[in-house]
What does this fold into?
Amino acid sequence: MNLPNSILRQSLSAVRLIFGRVPYIPECFADYCDDRRFARWLFAALYVLFWPRIGFTFNERHRHNRAMKSPILSCAMVLTLALGALNAIYADSATWNLNPISNDWNTAANWTPATVPNGPNDVATFGVSSTTDVSITASIEVNSIVFSPGASAFIITPSPANGAIVLTISGAGITNDSGITQNFVTYGDEDSSSFISLTGSATAGSGTILTCNGGPAGGGRGQIYFNDTTNAGDATVVSNGGYIFFYDDSSAADGTIIANREWRVH
It folds into this structure.
């Protein structure tokens, strides 16, 4: 998750104004974050919120600075950090480009803004594009996938070439406003499988086809999972030798299940 520079500067400037300095960021803390700038911002937030209990040592100038600062400034700091958190949460929603440089979902340059949608609050939007066969080469989680009105016809495929790859849709699900059919495909190769997993209350939407293909003998198979209270909506779910799973309180709803070859529904 990449925190915008403007939010980072505002947050750290406020910390410096209140406490007289920006806190040291332990390496062990930064190592747990994908982005050191985000680690620095988050540690600054913890520094403000838990300072009375942690008991950082200040010199006399720092004590004087702290005593002179207005409580209003502290409130402003908390507000700045809160706004920064909201900005960070939604920072990775993006729209697939009209002319992407490749068909790889996991390449930031293929999206506007140039960031990969990959988080439980992220929305991946697809409109008109010259590249419509989209491959997912590392596991991805999004809140929802939206096909805008007039969007091209896409095929989105988690590719198991680099091991087991999972597309997790954990929020609203799939929204298809394009007016045409949109396809999602999973399959297996000699060593691994690809998966689509709907969790929470996500729906497969309408005007969508989810297909799980088989693989070579002794190899992996495409798999589609409906978990929690998810449902197939009005989608068509097809097994061409792959596996379809309905767990917990999930349901097919008004969806159509088609078995063209050996398949399983659990």
Q: What stands out?
A: Residues 146 and 175 are 5 Å apart (CA to CA). The chain has two domains: 5-89, 94-265.
